Amino acid sequence: MEHRFFAAYPPPPGTVLEPSGATLGPLTGLRVAVVGYGTMGRANALNLRRSGIDVVVGAREGLKGGQRAQSEGFTVLPVAAAVAGADVVMLMLPDTAMAAAWERDVAPHLKPDAAVGFAHGFAIAFDQIRPEPGRSCFLAAPKSQGDLLIELHAAGRGVPGLLAVTDTSPPATWDVAAAYALAVGCLEGGGFVTTFREECVSDQFGEQAVLCGGVIELLKAAYDTLVDAGYGPENAYFECVHELKLITDLLHRHGVAGLRGRISGTAAYGGLTRGPRIIDDAVRARMRDVLAEIEDGRFARELLAEHDKTAGLAAEEAAGPLARAAGPLLARLNPGEGT
User: What tens digit of pLDDT does each residue of 167-224 get?
Assistant: First the structure.
């Protein structure tokens, strides 16, 4: 193998690749088709181009992503045409659209030696896509939202990333994955070797239990508790929502122990003694239930069957007390920005 970025092939889980340990060599002279131009697809395409990689965008008919990609200077092709001309095909479609796109527009048009990449493990972990043995298939998952990935890459920085390769891929696929991660900016702080399944299950659990589920419900419940007890909505919003960023910034920089030493003694004592009463053994048991639903595929099946309910659920939440309170406060706190 011409390019060897790892000491062993396959590298064991937990291996960490630094940016200095990889080059763009495995992508030199290759064309990458980014299929899908949503938030993460756009970030990948822009960062690849900034890194000097030949990029085209594959866009599904009738969606706005293709128009935006074209306005930002990319060659935009129907998905099948983009795939047919590419050496690396990066599938950036929604999880719920992967299987149909693979069967119709991707698999029949792949070059024999083309690699297939993903930024999230769902399609492979839950058998929505089954590349044939010998097909290079890799994961390069930035631990970041797309807009931030663009911003940091443009500033010469990046984010950590997770790397994986399917068991039936050729060993050199690891080098393609590393070069791709370097090109899009997700080796900063390390590229951590994992598996498609572990990335997917951990990601979904984090979203549901903490980031997009647990935290939001905690904020709603805390806000409602104060307001229902007669405290002003502005006070409730500032204390339970607005200041969350201050705490998470400290957590990011200093970890849990460092955070405790940088807040008031009252806040530290109150958090240490009352926090376990909020997140008690019953909550932990329900977290284990949520994890089990992800691990055994129940959540995947539910998502594929019922994802069209998302807009309605989000609209219902947007009509709730916390979302309504946020509107005028956000307009005051962030003048000139949309919500």
Answer: 999 999 999 999 999 999 999 999 999 999 999 999 999 999 999 999 999 999 999 9
Question: Does residue 306 share a domain with residue 263?
Answer: yes
The number of distinct structural domains making up the chain is 2
Contact 38, 63 (CB under 8 A): no
The residue annotated as part of the active site, out of 3, 109, 120, 153, is 120
In angstroms, the CA 230 to CA 233 distance is 9
Closest CA relative to residue 165, chosen from 1, 2, 6: 6
7-36: burial string, b at 16+ Cβ within 10 Å, e else:
eeeebeeebebebeebebebbeebbbbbbb
Question: By C-alpha distance, which of 143, 126, 301 is closest to 207?
Answer: 143
Q: Is residue 108 part of a domain?
A: yes
How long, in residues, is the chain?
A: 339
What's the pLDDT at 279? Answer: 96
Confirm whether 97 is domain-assigned: yes
* pLDDT of 259 higher than 70: yes
Torsion angle, alpha carbons of 255, 276, 198, 110, to 10: -80
Q: Single out the residue in 158, 179, 195 at which a domain terminates.
A: 195
The answer to whether 163 and 17 have CB atoms below 8 angstroms apart is yes
Residue 105 and residue 182 in one domain? yes
Indicate if 120 belongs to the active site.
Answer: yes
**Cβ neighbours around 47 below 10 Å, total:** 23
**pTM for this model (two decimals):** 0.92
Closest by CA to 189, choosing from 20, 43, 8, is: 20
Residue 78, CA distances (Å) to 107, 199, 287 in order: 14, 29, 42
In a shared domain, residues 24 and 166: yes
Mark which of 195, 217, 240 sits at the end of a domain: 195
Same domain, 125 and 145: yes
